[in-house]
Amino acid sequence: MKTILLLIPCLFLFACTSSLKESDLVGIWEIYRIEEINKKPKEQVKRYIEFKSDGSMAGGHIGEEPHKFGKWKLDSKTNTLNISSAEENKDDGDYIVERDSQETLILKQDSVSIYFRRMNE
Question: Hey, CA dihedral for 24, 30, 32, 33, is it positive or negative?
Answer without folding.
Answer: positive
